[in-house]
Design brief:
The structure is a homodimer of 421-residue chains.
Chain A: H1 3-23, H2 26-42, H3 44-60, H4 65-71, H5 75-90, E1 98-103, E2 109-116, E3 119-124, H6 128-140, E4 144-148, H7 154-170, E5 178-180, H8 187-192, E6 201-205, H9 208-217, E7 230-234, H10 240-252, E8 261-267, H11 271-283, E9 288-291, H12 293-299, E10 305-307, E11 321-327, H13 330-340, E12 345-349, H14 353-362, E13 367-372, E14 389-391, E15 399-401, E16 407-418
Parallel strand pairs in A: 3-4, 3-6, 4-5, 7-8, 7-12, 8-11, 9-10, 9-11, 12-13
Antiparallel strand pairs in A: 1-2, 2-16, 14-15
């Protein structure tokens, strides 16, 4: 198989389909999404059978249990995929929306129209639900998409892709608007990220290693986030009850997510009163606390206490581990965050208005919060309806990326024969 | 001189200054801009003297007359620079603006705050006015900037940079917020575009050759446009008077600008009546018309008539040359535009409502116009107040880029102790 030629043909078909998708009306896009949702429910047995093939192969090749778990398509997962599509149906169509239309002194009227990006390449690990979520978001936002899922999910993805194509065709839209890469050859990824003539943007979803590799080689812009080193800063003017609730929730609600707190900063004046109470909460989950000298002095006797090294401030644990640093006050906290944060999500706990407003303005992260758990940094929680991922880049899209992040704005001008003098 | 080390130090100073600029208040930024404008007027003689040095060196080295013209700092150019800064003072400060703030069912309030990008690297040719325009836009948008102007303007740029730094310091802002690269060594550009740790975005302003080279080598995202192959399509339902005015203006108002029409598409049904009248207008400027077979048959006898080759549809003439193609109707026109346009600016001339709306939606360009001259595609004409350039990329900024294009949006969350259940 000539991978270069194979990917080029996929790219050409996607580019062609993207033109039809860009002008597709809302009713057709919603009809496609509804048809796909119905087909997923109807063919649940066949999907599970395809998934079974993937799971057997993965077990044989010794895939890690956590990966097997993500690969598994349960009844609940199938129902959730179908519901997810129906939620996207319910969202307003972003395409064609015209904003900021205003008359200029010359007589022309100038505004901006929301338009699709074109062709979106999505590279992800062996999670079949991403296939459907990503397809749904790209269809609604009028884009064509090329999906490259983890090779372990290939049978399941092929079965899902068939349902997606049928749904598109049933609504009079091009079946090629959603294509999956049917080869498990890794060279296909190398082609996908170096065809700017056919692919407008790459959304990589996966571990830091994958994304760093793609960043080095990609000739196509990416919407991505590398890691989530999120902070909570407990100010000395914090409400202690809020500080305890939020610090516990931000660490312990889920360990493996990118919006989980990894480092807790505590103002010196409040540390002796707040840290022991907080340690009692963390003890119930046996969270390892890695403190600086001052924090360790306060936490003496905590069963899972270790010393933080310089490296800890730059580490995303994704585990029941928390680094703790005592700071003089907010200025030092902001300095620490702007130095070590991955610019994902950082929160201050304070009742002081001026400090809250300064933290909001001066912390340079995709989500900045006051008195709320970092775990809220999420497309659904923010009301975007669905998300393709979270970006901690500054250009184009920052933070949770919903339908709008898959679109651009073009200028539109209504004239009446005006010429430039 | 160790260029790598030199550029690294510039980058580090810029990164540091960007933090101060991000939190600078509107009054300080406006004060800096006003001080710079006043200093430019005050030191006009010294600026002309510095410019004289550049001009002498440039004449000695045989710079082309058009380049010499752009390099020259006339009294008018000096006044325009100062006025440009004062116009930026008058624009609203984009930074800190919070939009879309809404309560979520969990109790948190979520919105977006406009924030600077950080450090912006600008690479441009020997045009001293760009130094001041770019510095002004970056200051107002709360960014730090590193300016690399054409080496022919080095004395003038150094003199301007000194005034800019003084103005910043006078307003209590870091003088390093605007730095110019003081070496004319080309290796400095190579460093600037490969320091993503210090530079957040590159704005290249210059010819297609420069930008293509930068695109290949850059490790930093760019806001750029390569070329402007702009179209006017005269529909058979066009008002002939508007068609004549706009087609003449779009080509002949200025030949060398990126929003000048390069290809005229004419519906077959209207071509015999409109083209001869149009040719009379173009004849007054001796515009060379490169027609397809049908157009040439209609234009027989025109003094500057030649045959269009396939290559013409992809050529930006920047000259008194126009390619003309006869099309069956709007579908063929849109196909042609979406194939050959550089996605800069394209305009339809029609009185037909449905066609106008379809053209607006289906043409995939940064500016799409109805019954207006392509020459309007410009930050000032669109009411942006000033522009750093025009982007024909789709990501981040598309079309004329003003202050907003030099900013990003971060999510802000106002909580009251909420945790995620």
């Amino acid at each position: 198989m000539d991978i270069k030629q194979y990917m080029k043909e996929i790219g050409q078909r996607a580019r062609k389909a993207s033109r039809a998708m860009a002008k597709a009306d809302t009713a057709a896009k919603n009809q496609a999404l509804s048809l796909i949702a119905a087909a997923i429910r109807r063919d649940a047995d066949a999907l599970r059978a395809a998934n079974q093939k993937d799971l057997e192969a993965a077990r044989t090749s010794g895939l890690a249990p956590a990966m097997l778990d993500r690969l598994t398509l349960s009844d609940k997962a199938i129902a959730t995929m179908a519901e997810g599509l129906e939620q996207i149906v319910a969202l307003p169509d972003p395409i064609g929306e015209i904003s900021n239309m205003k008359y200029r002194p010359t007589g022309i009227q100038v505004g901006q129209m929301r338009v699709p990006l074109g062709v979106i390449g999505i590279i992800y690990e062996a999670r079949p639900n991403v296939t459907v979520d990503a397809a749904g978001l790209c269809i609604k936002s009028g884009n064509a998409t090329i999906l490259r899922g983890g090779s372990e999910a290939i049978h399941c993805n092929q079965a899902l892709a068939k349902l997606v194509s049928e749904g598109l065709a049933g609504a009079g839209l091009p079946a090629d608007a959603v294509q999956i890469v049917e080869t498990t050859d890794r060279a296909a990824v190398g082609e996908l990220i170096t065809m700017p003539e056919y692919v407008d943007v790459i959304v990589p979803r996966g571990g830091k290693g994958l994304i760093e590799r793609l960043m080095k080689e990609s000739k196509v812009p990416m919407i991505k986030h590398l890691d989530g080193i999120c902070h909570v800063y407990i100010d000395d003017k914090a409400d202690p009850a809020k500080a305890l609730d939020i610090s516990f929730n931000a660490k312990c609600h889920r360990y493996g997510t990118c919006n989980t707190m990894e480092t807790l900063l505590v103002a010196r004046a409040i540390a002796p009163s707040i840290l022991p109470a907080l340690a009692k909460l963390y003890a119930t989950r046996e969270v390892e606390l890695r403190g600086d000298d001052e924090a360790r002095a306060i936490l003496q006797g905590y069963a899972h206490l270790t010393a933080a090294s310089a490296e800890d401030w730059s580490t995303e644990y994704l585990d029941a581990i928390l680094s703790i640093r005592i700071v003089t006050g907010m200025d030092e906290a902001i300095d620490h965050i702007n130095t070590y944060s991955s610019q994902h999500t950082d929160s201050i706990i304070t009742e002081d208005y001026t400090r809250a407003m300064r933290f909001l303005r001066e912390v340079d992260s995709a989500s900045v919060m006051i008195n709320a758990s970092t775990r809220f940094a999420d497309g659904f929680e923010y009301g975007l309806g669905a998300e393709i991922g979270i970006s901690n880049d500054k250009l184009h899209a920052r933070g949770p990326v919903g339908l709008d992040g898959l679109t651009s704005l073009k200028y539109v001008v209504f004239g009446h024969g005006e010429i430039r003098e």
